[in-house]
Amino acid sequence: MKVVLLGAPGAGKGTQCKNIVARYSLLHLSSGDILRQERAESTELGKKAQSYMDSGALVPDEIIIEMMAKAIEKAPADGFILDGFPRTVNQAVELDKALVAGGQQIDAVLNLEIDDNVVSRRITGRRSCPQCGAVYHIENLKPKTEGICDNDGTELVQRSDDTQEVLSNRLDAYHRQTELLVDYYKKNGTVYDFDADRDPDDVGASIFEKLDALVKM
Ligand code: AMP
Predict the structure, then answer these.
(1) Is the beta carbon of 64 within 6 A of some atom in ligand 1?
(2) Given pLDDT bands bounded at 50, 70 and 90, which one contains residue 103?
(3) Predicted local distance difference test score (pLDDT) of residue 159
(4) Which of 7, 79, 130, 200 could in theory staple to 112 by disulfide, Cβ–Cβ 3.0 to 4.6 A?
(5) Residue spans per domain, the chain
(6) Closest CA to 84 of 163, 205, 197, 181
(7) Does residue 174 carry a pLDDT above 90?
């Protein structure tokens, strides 16, 4: 099964991906995580992406398409879930071309719908563990000890692009460039919409219902 997860920043893509990956044994390919890893390792790619990410703009298509093509090439044949990619129609077109060339296709597009105001509250309160990647929230998902990861005791950090100012740019990029993808994929009839302004477990249950049905087909 090959799945694309769409949604604004803060819609819960990362959280839902974790559950989906565990249930259906898919490889999780997050373009944001790959970019952050490249930056942490100070690679050429990481350096090129840095200024775009820090301002909340999208990294240019050619950089992202090449990076994700490599990641997808290495993915096992039984499937993957793309999180944060594609984010422009151009990226989606290139992805489709690459998949078709390999006799493959996207089986489902999961679209997490959420209001910008909810996103704002979620994102600016988000904290994560730089060691294990666990994600917390200062109000809704507090660690046992304030500012410390429950799993490994590491001090939690705020992503530098999770501030209100950068978030405004990220939401702007989402509405101007990424939202168009919903229509692009709707032409193929493979999009499932989910109200993401709900408890993450409820969103997850709705997603499982759809994907379970697809797996049985
Ligand atoms: P994310 O963790 O998915 O919110 O991504 C963090 C940042 O990485 C974004 O704000 C963009 O600057 C960059 N990024 C991630 N995925 C893409 C993509 N598919 N196309 C362009 N830029 C991306």
Answers:
(1) yes
(2) confident
(3) 87
(4) 7
(5) 2-114+165-216
(6) 181
(7) yes
- Which ligand 1 atom sits closest to the C-alpha of 56? 10
CATH T-level assignment (fold) for domain 2-114+165-216: Rossmann fold (3.40.50)
Residues with catalytic annotation? 13, 87, 126, 159, 170
Radius of gyration (C-alpha) of the chain in whole angstroms: 17
Q: What percent of the chain has pLDDT over 70?
A: 100
Token digits of residue 161: 């692009």
C-alpha distances out from residue 105 to 79, 92, 167, Å: 10, 11, 32
Give, using CA atoms, the residue closest to atom 5 of ligand 1. Answer: 32
User: Hey, what are 56's tokens?
Assistant: 């909340």
Give the span between the Cα atoms of 190 and 106, in whole angstroms.
Answer: 8
Q: What is the pTM of this model?
A: 0.89
- Tell me, using a 6 A CB cutoff, whether residue 35 lines ligand 1: yes
Ligand 1 center to 177 CA (angstroms)? 12
